Amino acid sequence: MAVVVVGSLFLGAGTASAASCPESRRYATAVEANFHLFDTGGYTRPQADGLVDMEDMRRVAYEGSALSQVREAARYFYENPAEFRHMDGIRDGWRTDGLVTRDDVNAAIDYWTNECGESGNCPTSRHNATVVRNNFHAFDTGGYTRPQADGLVDMEDMRRIAYGGAAPYELREAGRYFYEHPAEFRHMDGIRDGWRTDGLVIRDDVDAALQYWANECG
């Protein structure tokens, strides 16, 4: 079977812990283009099952006979497990089971394409997250419809500030954006915990997402 090399897949020493949107998209594209190879752990498993797990990534990276560029793609996801979990959970509300299908990889590629700035989600998410950060108390209280703040913002807070409160227009628009784009809310929710989410966003989560989007928006 032919091995497809997509772009330059060289990963220099020391960069594995610094995952970024363009890198993740590039390496995921390599996984998709060579999915059967990854599915069989670099042809070290007897047959394909349509699923790629971290053991497959390890085998391709360190045991198989794949081209060096493809091994680097496997090493990237093996050494950046949060990025693997991103592929794993993107089609199921960030719930993960340790198994990635080809459809998961394609969904992650689409997501990273948007976040890398080619389709515009990143600047919009950053703008609205900035509004949340600068008015966190208002969001924390659902547009002042809750009796007190608890340091946590959930989707109900977003709904209240968007549709039920008397907040200024810019705040209502930010609330509506995250309420109508739950994947972007989950991005804030999970960014500091390897994309594991609990439905609750604190101020530090917003700051971390802002830093991420600032880097990815260019």
From TrEMBL:
Official protein name in the record = SCP domain-containing protein
Signal peptide: which range, if any? 1-18
Q: Which UniProt keywords apply?
A: Signal
Q: What is the organism field in this record?
A: Allostreptomyces psammosilenae
Q: What is the lineage of its organism?
A: Bacteria, Bacillati, Actinomycetota, Actinomycetes, Kitasatosporales
Source taxon at top rank: Bacteria
